[in-house]
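Aim 2 progress update. The chain analyzed this quarter is reproduced below.
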Amino acid sequence: MKKFLLVTFGLVVFLLLIIYFSNKPKTQTDKLTIETTQINVSQAVNRPIIGIHYQIIDKQTALDNKLTEGAYITQVIEGSPAEKAKLQEEDIITEIDSRSISGLDEQSIYNLISTLKSGTKVNLKIWRDNKIMDVSVILD
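Predicted structure tokens:
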């Protein structure tokens, strides 16, 4: 009787292993294909853009170079909202919608902008030629 139970148990385990491995994806690529087929195309996200490349000017860099803290514009993208708003290379953005960006890192500024919606009018304070200016940009 013990032999019969052991053989039966062994067969059940063997069959369960066969079922398990026959349903499991064979490779990582198969697994990725299975997972990606469940993504809904309508879930695509439009991220708002200003249309600039920038570098952060921290407090020490600002003091060393007689500048102000903020996002130093290194490039204005052609045809972008920034170009339409007449932002220029070497401008320094100090505020976005009355929120100071002093002390923020690039990711924090990106997160701040990404909470806004395309088509939104954003008020920026920029530092140009030792003067603070107000500029409005409509995000794409």
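Strands lie at 52-57, 70-76, 92-96, 99-100, 121-128, 131-138. The CA atoms of residues 48 and 86 lie 18 Å apart. These observations will guide the mutagenesis experiments scheduled for the next reporting period.
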